[in-house]
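Format notes (please read before filing issues)

Several people have asked whether sequences and structure tokens are stored in separate files. They are not. Every record keeps both together, in the order shown below: the sequence lines, then the token lines. Line labels are part of the format and must not be stripped during preprocessing.
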Amino acid sequence: MRTFLPSILWVLLLHCCGQMTQAEVFTSISHLTDLIYTEKELVQSLREYIKAEESKLAAVKSWANKLDALTRVSTSDPEGYLGHPVNAYKLMKRLNTEWTELESLVLQNPSDGFISNISTHRQYFPDEEDATGAAKALMRLQDTYQLDSEAFARGKLPDSSHERAGGNLRYYENLLRKQLSELNQDYEPASEEPIQLGTYSRPKDHLPEREAYEALCRGEGLQMVRRSRLFCRYQDGNRNPHLLLKPIKEEDEWDSPNIVRYLDFLSNEEIEKIKELAKPKLARATVRDPKSGVLTTASYRVSKSAWLEGEEDPIIARVNQRIEDLTGLTVKTAELLQVANYGVGGQYEPHFDFSRKDEPDAFKRLGTGNRVATFLNYMSDVEAGGATVFPDFGAAIWPRKGTAVFWYNLFKSGEGDYRTRHAACPVLVGNKWVSNKWIHERGQEFRRPCGLTEVD
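Then the structure lines:
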């Protein structure tokens, strides 16, 4: 049982936004970034409202001061005051027109613009699902990275000097203590997982490698005994004409199964263009149901993704072609380029990219066979967390912007390589962007011929 108090501050912030209509904001840092600018605009609107109220109040005060001076004179000698015809005229004029103008001034509502602005943006605010999701995300981060809750609230994170976090969070500590009991009463988990705001106990789950997976995410238990020598080289895709003059640097990440990393695979320009194209399309990431083959959301995958076609932009077509040139595998039967942005505590728990024998219909609708290989692009550095880990053999691959990793999911026989079960560790600090290409069997018959044994 782990005490959980200060780390719920994010949930408080989401909860305070109220009951809104837009869900799953927490699953993408990119969309949360939009809320930063939304809040800035609302603050500006609020300041304009305050300025208008102050202007209105100043005008009313001016009226009050003027009328106070007049009434002091008139009430000191009413008959003498009205004996002057001009004073009698001004009294009637004030009561006939000027007090009406003052009434109109008082009835003005400078808040209309602010209320209209906030109502327009309200549809994009987080909702209760976001508050619940963010709560679970913080609990997941504490559990995976074994964080001390008090230290977490002070911005102290492992292997990361996150100074601003402490300053940002300290402001909310007193507010949190005042409202914690109220939040506990209002909070109702959306799933069967036994999560509470006050304490957190690990739910029983389906992951036999849970401890090994989380240890790898923390950088523990990494197996360094691989091949006696790992190599780096220039890769020209077996003398592919597109790569002869500009081969790509290749490093061995693991020997068996063979996992390689390509350096400088994507340029900053390409990364920014891919993110620009993907951002309007980002939606809650899905997984393919192993029985029906239908895409559906899952609690163990916290991110948003978009799918980009080669025809959308020359850069997408160019990246697809580069993947084909480098791997020697056709991408004509591959899935579209998937772009993913991870949210608060974003992760993808251990999974296989390929379909197993008990899931014969997983990719039936595509008609391109199983996923023979995975090509994963890292489009951002991540300050802490976010590694790609392989619990079976104890490997962890850390995101490096512009690089890509590649591995085969299937042996040449077509049998699945169960060692490639992998996971995306929760993002502790930073904004993780990746894109991937799942390459399928169809069309690879002469590019990667079948082997003679199951493990060829």
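For reference, the curators noted about this record: The longest strand covers residues 371-378. The mean pLDDT is 82.
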